[in-house]
Design brief:
single chain; 4 helices
């Protein structure tokens, strides 16, 4: 019973609160000029963050290889 209430609460949190900005983007902003670009700004932001983190990971990997501390087992 408690688990069902927790999952309902999580579903309500996402649909009623966290997705409100996306609904606003979908209903009002996407129909205007440059709507596609504005609507996908979130995707562009996530892509930039992903590329930054990938670059950081590769630099750290290169550093471990140069120091000889990489676990190759």
């Amino acid at each position: 019973m408690i688990a069902g209430n927790i999952f309902r609460w999580i579903g309500s949190l996402f649909t009623d609160l966290l997705f409100l900005p996306f609904n606003w983007l979908r209903t009002s902003v996407a129909t205007q000029d440059f709507g596609w670009w504005i609507s996908n700004a979130v995707n562009w932001f996530f892509l930039i963050v992903l590329l930054f983190l990938f670059r950081y990971w590769m630099n750290e990997s290169r550093r471990f290889v140069k120091e000889g501390t990489e676990d190759r087992s």
